[in-house]
Structures
1.
Amino acid sequence: MITVMGLIQTATDLSETSYFDNEEAMRRGVGDLCLGGVFNRVVDNSQKGISYARGGVELDAITQFFFPDISASMTAASMGSFNLSMGLPGPLVAEMQSILCLQNTVVEPPVLGQGLKRMSILRKRPDVSSEEFQKQWFELHGLLVKRLPGLAGYRQNLVLDGPRDEDGHMMVDGMVELWFPDGETIDSAFQSDIGNTTMMHAKEFIAEISTFLVEPHCVRGLS
């Protein structure tokens, strides 16, 4: 599965807009070539559950568009069949960047609306290659996260292309999606023995983790 995500900073608080009442505009923003789309409104940008070096990216929303393969995503992009802001009115968008990801579902997420969704931007250590980052994340780290108590869903999104810094390095190497029943379960999961082991392993290949609690709005298809 391929996912295109929009990393959005807004000019105003989205909770004070009527955007989410306009379902038709959101559907048009997804387009017919996507398998589905999700608009994730950020409701908390603290490091929920963890104490870890945080990057400088602060977001107000993260959009997701799902495609069966890269070819389909490129066709949709070239045809302009989906809107990266998912129909969010232009004046509300202060800044927006896109990332193209390879999605790996480790634990199938719950039905939309059940539990709490937590998304995290990962940036690899500069001394770790892209190949080693993927190996560590998809193999041992994935197994460790899967064992977190109370975990209800887990997806890894390996960034294939996205924004780069002035030195040409990727600014986002991975996007994590975790689901838990509630905030207390997130805290207790990462304070557990397996949670401590998981974060110790993270330091071997991840430089920064920037975490966001989100409120997902599913437009069509996958959540």
2.
Amino acid sequence: MEDAAKTLRLGEGLEKVPDFLKEIPVIDVAAAGTCSLLEAKQDHDEGWSWTHSVVVDGGANVGGLAITAGAIALLPIEAPTAVVAGVGGVVAVGVTGVLDHAFHEHWKEDIHNHGVVAGILHGSGHVFSQTGGDFVRMKDDIWHGIKSLF
């Protein structure tokens, strides 16, 4: 937030802002908000109310950002930037994917069809399988992007 304020020449009043607010990653929050709205529109088009869609998709993205920030805060201060970026990227995609798929899983149906314990295990299997699939698709997309450069 501090960098954005300086870029927009709003730095004069920035001294009054608490230090922890100066470190808010504006681009990350804006990206999460944009993704939340795009995902919420898709869920709304598939029959969910706007409120339910925004809460579920926004909750997954905000939760992913918060857990990622916590994970990065646990890294040693001396950690190289590439390590911080790598850990941050993997945690952000993984946690956000798990939360998003967990919020979209049909838990009632899983429990009804398989019983409580087996239903939770069945739904959890779906969540982690779908999240793993997200990583595979991303890897493939990145690889195809790299190949197209050459």
3.
Amino acid sequence: MSSAGDLPLSGMAHKAQMTCHDCPLRHFCLPARLGEEEVARLERIIRRNRPLQKGEHLFRAGEPVQQIYALRSGSLKNYLLDQDGTEQITGFVLPGELVGIDGFGRSTFPGYAMALETSMACTIPLAELEELAGAIPNLRKQLLNILGRELHEEHEHLSHTHESAEQRLALFLLNLSSRFSKRGLSALNFILPMSRGEIGNYLGLTTETISRLFTRYRQQGLIDSQGREVHLLDVKALCGLCATPADTTPSGLQAG
């Protein structure tokens, strides 16, 4: 079902020595609003990490907040653990997105970030970033923009918890589609980096419910899927599943 134009997330920005200037994801990340000289100043404080393997943590709850991260390739899940050790997934991170910014204003990270596949992240020391943001207004604006977007997305996710299971999964697929599209990947054909169980955990649904919904969507001609490969066949109908008078198609994705 994959086409030649489809790329896995792990194939993006994979060169170990790639700089911010060369990175194709720079327009999502901190350099988005910066000029060339400002990008060079940011580049000097960034460290490149070794690849994370699937199941390896980028950070854990309770570790000191001394840096944040920008994901270069692969994908991560953010999650919390309750008092009984039960995992609650709070989000999925794609290339070009910052990781650990929920630690701003805290002494330790409140949650965990774990690789869903082989992934690479850039480390950005927080003290040096704060100092640089004080000297570069456009960097400060970009940080505020990213923080605002994170808060908005969290609010959006919480606002959909009262909706039906069918609506929640449709919104999830459309949101992923839009995010893939913005990264130059196919909006209609993609590979899910997360499992059915992880999708269910994030959406507050059981794995069995997610599997039934995938089957129903296939039977209705909305999608085709095989394993983690998904092909959106009828975006307009998917949008219709979750539409309310105030709803719009997710940014970057056309319903036609």
